[in-house]
Every structure is written in C-alpha cells, then in structure tokens.
Amino acid sequence: MRACIPGRKHRKTTVRYDKHRYQQRNRIEIMFGRLKDWRRIATLYDRCPNVFLSAIALAAAVIFWP
After folding, report:
1. How far apart are CA 27 and CA 25, in angstroms?
2. Which of 10, 11, 17, 18 is the most exposed place for a label (fewest CB within 10 A)?
3. How far is CA 20 from CA 5, 24, 41, 49, in A?
4. Helices (H), 36-65
C-alpha cells in the first residue's frame, strides 16, 4: 500500500504521495458527497439493485448537467 494523502506540515518525517492519485481520490469523494445529498440514494430506499443503480445514474446526470 502507498500513501495517497499528503502528511501534515508539522510532521518530522515527510510522507511521499502521488499528487495525481490524490486529485483523483478527491474528485471521487466530492462526487459521493453530492450523490448523498439525494435522500433516496443516501438511505437506500430501493431494494432492487437495478432500480438503485438507475437512481444513481439519474442523480449523477442531474448533478453534472452542464
């Protein structure tokens, strides 16, 4: 395993990390945070996996509409 999050400034030894991976990780976390704003997705109302995935696709399309 490699570190993907940068270390704190006051740390004695620096932690090496990949800046590109960190940026990608941050984008994914932001996306999940926006999806959780939709109550239906955050509380898993849909029991059927197909309906749940379609709700996620619909929410993602609405959130990221240009």
Report:
1. 5
2. 10
3. 11, 6, 29, 32
4. 39-42, 49-63
Whether 50 shows a pLDDT value over 80: the answer reads yes
Closest CA to 41 of 57, 49, 27, 52: 52
Show Cβ contacts of residue 14 under 8 Å, excluding neighbours closer than 6 positions: 7
Predicted pLDDT at 2:
63
The contacts found for 35-39 with CB under 8 angstroms, 24 or more apart, are 35/59, 35/60, 35/63
Q: What is the pLDDT of residues 26-45, one digit of tens each?
A: 888 888 888 888 888 888 78
Q: Is the per-residue pLDDT at 56 higher than 80?
A: yes
- Give which of 66, 65, 61 is closest to 41, Cα–Cα: 61
